[in-house]
């Protein structure tokens, strides 16, 4: 019987301590109770702010695109290489439409890398980009074969010389020829 009284006494200590603290310090508790609706509204607004901040960070970091590619690769769903090459092609087209010359240079540089990747996928023989370009069947590109070699040379020149001033016409012509090559490889 004494054990139950001791347990009851121990369980009532927090309630008695709270009542005693209210007796001597009524300010904070009564202020909290009086302002509880305002506190709830403020905490709800802060929670919404952080929720939307987290959503924004997820979309800006392209987390879902990364996870999609990861699952496509893991479960061998779809053609991941084709998907990535399409994304590179869209980046090239975005850069070439820009008004900044440095974006044109980036587009021309990336266009040769993408063409090299497509030639590797298509099993064009050769160890380097130059070898693959020379082993590329001229009939495959038709009238664009010579222009493609010129566009590849321009791309290499832009990569090699960082200070090379690329004109808008040169960039547009190179990207147009590369786009024709992408069409012949079935990318677009």
Content of β-strand: under 5%
Q: In percent, how helical is the residue content? A: over 70%
Q: Could you tell me how far the N terminus lies from the C terminus, measured between alpha carbons in angstroms?
A: 86 Å
* H/E element sequence: HHHHHHHHHH
Structural class determined from secondary elements: mainly alpha
Low-confidence stretches: none
- Count the E strands: 0
Structure, described:
The chain has 188 residues and is mainly α. It has two domains: 2-60, no CATH class; 79-184. The chain has helices at 2-24, 26-34, 36-60, 63-75, 80-96, 101-121, 129-135, 138-141, 145-160, 168-184. It is elongated.
Using brief descriptors, characterize the structure shown.
about 190 residues, mainly alpha, about 80% helix, elongated
Describe the structure concisely for a colleague:
By secondary structure, this protein is mostly helical.
How do the helices and strands line up, and which of them pair or pack?
Layout: H1 2-24, H2 26-34, H3 36-60, H4 63-75, H5 80-96, H6 101-121, H7 129-135, H8 138-141, H9 145-160, H10 168-184
Helix pairs in contact: 5-6, 6-9, 6-10, 9-10
